């Protein structure tokens, strides 16, 4: 196989998605931001001009000199998976891929002009073939969406924040940008999880991989249903104090929590959107230039509104109650934040329920 062709692409049973746009699988918040950026005149030119300042060249040389480049004679099974993933998602140019010695399971896709994919030895040793296929598809999804550009910028800004920490207000400004980019990137991880499922087309393997990322290579000790139940308990348990702690816990992270990713992916695999893609009905790359920014933002806003309405999180439920004009909001706020039981009525009942769930 050449770098730009698929002459030797393996025959397979999985569906292929010719001309698929990344908009087909992107999370609404991720998609709206990407559509807006693609509409900005000169956006690509600006980022290419920044490439001299960003650590991309250094990173490329580092991986080339101190990691193993995947190919037909090195990690051949990963090379086949990579070509296969690009074939399924119709990514014409196959990215370079490296295996890096690191016991911590991890993978990333970085680069401005040409994305490169890096997986650690810890990940390669942890996952079986189908689980690894979903991970490779995940990283190819990042490449197709252009996420590698923003991850590279995030790495640069994170390093810059450390360097300007001594400048008054300088670190505050950079930290605000980094925080916003991290929130964006967490949503992009949900998008890439969907791309991994489109490549692997085995939701059970995707779930297994996420469970192993959380609990190691002990599948005989784990259960998918119980793992998803953890995500449900995490979302709905506790009171408003726990809701605030959840926000603080996730702020420094570039990835959503593993149980949350599993629950989100499982829900998407059962959705009409996923089934339509599998049936061959999906947005095409050739139409990306005509994608509406306003429509994308409306879809994103609608998604968040639905998330608030359906969420079991105490804070989101309270926001939903306020938006719906629920009575006795002050009482609910007091009971939910303190975890105290009220003196009867609806507020008291909910206070008891929140406290019990938090202890459970």
Describe this structure in words.
It is a single chain. 62% of the residues lie in helices and 4% in strands. The protein is mostly helical. It starts with 27 loop residues before the first helix and ends with a helix. 32% of the residues are buried.
With strands numbered from the N-terminus, the spatial order across the biggest sheet is 1-2-4-3
Q: What integer is the average pLDDT? A: 75
In what range is the share of β-strand residues?
under 5%
Q: What's the gyration radius in Å?
A: 22 Å
For the sheet with most strands, the description reads: 4 strands, mixed
Low-confidence stretches: 1-11, 342-360
Quaternary structure of the protein: single chain
Task: Give me the secondary-structure category.
Answer: mainly alpha
Please estimate the helix content. 55-70%
**Global outline:** globular
Distinct helical segment count: 17
User: Order of helices and strands, N to C?
Assistant: HHHEHEEEHHHHHHHHHHHHH
What distance separates the N and C termini?
Answer: 55 Å
Number of strands: 4
Please write out the topology.
Blueprint: H1 28-39, H2 43-50, H3 56-66, E1 68-69, H4 76-88, E2 96-100, E3 107-110, E4 116-120, H5 121-126, H6 129-145, H7 147-163, H8 170-200, H9 203-215, H10 224-236, H11 240-250, H12 258-269, H13 272-278, H14 293-310, H15 314-323, H16 329-338, H17 345-359
Parallel strand pairs: 2-4
Antiparallel strand pairs: 1-2, 3-4
Question: What distinguishing features does this structure have?
Answer:
360 residues, mainly alpha, 4 strands, disordered N terminus
